[in-house]
Amino acid sequence: MPDVKCSVSNCTYWNQGNNCGADRIMIDIDQHANADYSAEFAGVSFDTEHQDRAKKAANTCCHTFKAKSK
């Protein structure tokens, strides 16, 4: 697993030093930003069958995010 940095500190998988502790990372294009992949634990249920193309990094989003429980 590569070193994945994340500055979203209210995510369940956020670790000290702005590191992502998820076992899997799902990144998609903004067009699918509102897609509900019903992720249970960092991507077990993600739809990994489709393929898209992004023109630039700004056109992508991370679906791995899961808010920390209070």
Describe, in plain words, how this protein is organized in 3D:
With 70 residues, the chain is mostly beta strands. It is 0% helix and 14% strand. The protein has a two-stranded antiparallel ribbon. A two-stranded antiparallel ribbon has the order 3-4. This is DUF1540 domain-containing protein. Residues 4-65 form the DUF1540 domain.
Short description:
Residues 4-65 form the DUF1540 domain. With 70 residues, the protein is mostly beta strands.
Round the Cα radius of gyration to an integer and report it.
Answer: 12 Å
Mean pLDDT: 75
Supply the helix-strand structural class.
mainly beta
Strand content: 5-15%
Unreliable stretches (pLDDT < 50, length at least 5) are none
**Fraction in helix:** under 10%
Listing every helix as H and every strand as E from the N terminus to the C terminus, the arrangement reads: EEEE
**Spatial arrangement of strands, main beta sheet:** 1-2
Terminal CA distance: 28 Å
Secondary-structure blueprint of this entry?
Elements: E1 14-15, E2 19-20, E3 27-29, E4 60-62
Antiparallel strand pairs: 1-2, 3-4
